[in-house]
Write a structure and sequence with these properties.
Helices cover 45% and strands 15% of the residues. The protein has 550 residues and is α/β, with parallel strands linked by helices. The protein folds into three domains: 248 residues, Rossmann fold, CATH 3.40.50.450; 177 residues, Phosphofructokinase domain (Rossmann fold); 73 residues, Phosphofructokinase, domain 3 (Arc Repressor Mutant, subunit A). The strands form three sheets. Strands 1, 2, 3, 4, 5, 6, 7, 8, 13 and 14 form a ten-stranded mixed beta sheet that branches. Bound molecules: 1,6-di-O-phosphono-beta-D-fructofuranose.
């Protein structure tokens, strides 16, 4: 297989580990006090009687060098790709081998679906070495099949038993780790003898809390997007004739957009959580943008850069209501909807079933957006926001608003928008040093949890804003991160999603600088991720982490 010169050189990078793991994954465990849940404690306790309340685990170096018996483990990659997934597997593999040389690791193919359908490979040293410090999930591929029904749990159990697998490691986001916890509970309640361990993944950055400092992949993806935004900013500032509307991935939370905004200082950074808090309408957002376009037109020129979070659309209250109604119609009337012929019949059908308010909002949108809102939902029933061209919607609406103002003699600039969507460009990039180190340590810690025989824990590395010398690793009970939320008309236990905190330091820093960045051209050009060179360039942490820890 041909590989790039960079990949070849990068394969030799030795990922850093916390001191507790430097002589292997056999660790001394200290247990904290019993834990609770972020909310709805009673309900979570009832639903997870075997897992609720377990103490946090903190690891330190042990003088025991390994285990007496090998461990067979299985691993799955679940959900969207995130840089560093291969290093989690590499850390897990090396950790298991340090526990016992005969330990084996099986990778289920294509996500949770591979575990149910018994599609797997044995992950060997040769395979691991070929994928160290690379981006992507292609070693075993990922998928979005949900693992939450007893039948699937049983099927998975049979497949694990056939391979003598005693530990399953689920690498995923909030939904996948919620399901990992359900699986852990089911296996504990049925004495299946299989432990389940989670690892926090998602470029979206919304699986984090006091003990999980970041979800892996966020650092690298934000650096790739920030490089691209910086390049566009420099182009905008050179040509001085375009307004760039850039949508950034992040299904729900706006962490990616906030981080990219802090790294590159664009003229406008929209944050979904703020829009929700202020209950802004689309028209208000459009007016705010138009105001800045006019001010810049009069002072610096007809150019600028605006960042739009992918999830924005669902934070605008009127759109949220419309999407919720559409979700119900598409779920409840799926047969009738499937029999319609052509777009106009579909639009008519939907309009007929919507409430008066929702139908008004729907009708005010361009047809392209109406069609995108009716597209298939993902397996969790969510609208696929990455397919909705919010950047085009806003560019078009701002353009219309400026034409009206121009007709009234209130604007005489020239507005030429360009639209972009950055998402897939960043999800499989070669991991930054932060993600390479963090992921390797998460995987190695997962092996250490396997070695303790405990179940229902998420691998955790703390103090990652400091040198690896100071990192602390251990396991956090997943039930501790849970609450009960209404999903598809039912109360479900789920890991609470971490949205952007409007009273948190990262957002406050954006807010403090916004007015200045809007009018002045204060762009910052971060350039590409550096893998070789001085530590201040290669070992940077995200502004988000830096400010959260300040
Ligand atoms: P995960 O939460 O599963 O990591 O996925 C995140 C994400 O990258 C979102 O930012 C994006 O909306 C979504 O995946 C797109 O997924 P897909 O390519 O499967 O439509």
């Amino acid at each position: 297989m041909a590989i790039s010169t960079l990949q070849k050189a990068r394969a030799a990078y030795a990922a850093k580990l916390p001191p507790a793991l430097r002589s292997g994954a056999c660790v001394t465990v200290s247990e904290g006090s019993p834990t609770g849940a972020v909310a709805d404690e009673k309900k979570i306790q009832e639903l997870f009687p075997n897992n609720f309340g377990k103490p946090k685990l903190t690891f330190s170096e042990s003088d025991q060098s390994g285990l007496n018996a090998p461990i067979n483990a299985g691993v799955i990659l679940s959900g969207g790709q995130a840089p560093g997934g291969h290093n989690v597997i590499a850390g897990l593999f090396d950790g298991l081998k340090s526990l016992h040389a005969d330990s084996r690791l099986f990778g289920f193919l294509g996500g949770p679906g591979g575990l149910i359908d018994n599609k797997f490979i044995e992950i060997t040293a040769e395979i691991v070495d070929a994928y160290r410090n690379t981006g992507g999930f292609d070693m075993i591929a990922s998928g979005r099949t949900k693992l939450e029904e007893t039948e699937a749990f049983e099927q998975a159990r049979k497949n694990c038993e056939a391979l003598n697998i005693k530990t399953l490691v689920v690498i995923g986001g909030d939904d996948s780790n919620t399901n990992a916890c359900l699986l852990a509970e089911y296996y504990a309640s049925t004495n299946a003898g299989i432990q389940v361990v989670g690892c926090p993944k998602t470029i979206d950055g919304d699986l984090k809390n006091e003990y999980i400092e970041a979800s892996f992949g966020f650092d690298t993806a934000c650096r790739v997007y920030s490089e691209l935004i910086g390049n566009i900013e420099r182009d905008a500032n050179s040509a001085r004739k375009y307004w760039h509307f850039i949508k950034l991935m992040g299904r729900s939370a706006s962490h990616i957009t906030l981080e990219a905004g802090l790294q590159t200082h664009p003229n406008i950074t929209l944050i979904g959580e703020e829009v929700l808090e202020k209950k802004q309408t689309i028209d208000e957002i459009v007016n705010e943008i138009a105001e800045i376009v006019i001010k810049r037109s009069k002072t610096v020129g007809d150019f600028g850069v605006i960042l739009i979070p992918e999830g924005l659309i669902e934070f605008i209250p009127e759109m949220k209501m419309l999407i919720a109604e559409l979700n119900d119609i598409l779920a409840n009337e799926s047969d009738a909807f499937a029999n319609l012929r052509g777009r106009s019949e579909e639009l008519q059908f939907v309009n007929h079933h919507l409430s008066k308010e929702a139908s008004y909002v729907f009708s005010s949108l361009p047809v392209t957006i109406q069609v995108q809102l009716m597209l298939d939902r993902d397996p969790h029933g969510n609208v696929q926001v990455s397919l909705i061209e919010t950047e085009k919607l806003l560019a078009e609406m701002v353009s219309m608003e400026l034409s009206e103002l121009s007709a009234e003699g209130k604007y005489d600039g020239k507005f030429t928008p360009q639209t972009h969507f950055f998402g897939y460009e960043g999800r499989c990039a070669a991991p930054s040093n932060y993600d390479a180190d963090y992921c390797y340590s998460l995987g190695y810690t997962a092996a250490a949890i396997a070695g303790t025989g405990k179940t229902g824990f998420m691998s955790s590395i703390q103090h990652t804003n400091k040198p690896a010398e100071e990192w602390i690793c251990g396991g956090i009970p997943i039930t501790m991160m849970m609450n009960v939320e209404r999903r598809h008309g039912e109360d479900k236990p789920v890991i609470q999603k971490a949205l952007v905190k409007l009273d948190g330091n990262p957002f406050i820093t954006l807010q403090r600088n916004r007015a200045k960045w809007a009018i002045e051209t204060d762009y910052v050009y971060p350039g590409p991720i550096q893998y070789f060179g001085p530590t201040e360039v290669c070992d940077q942490i995200t502004k988000t982490l830096e400010l959260e820890k300040a």
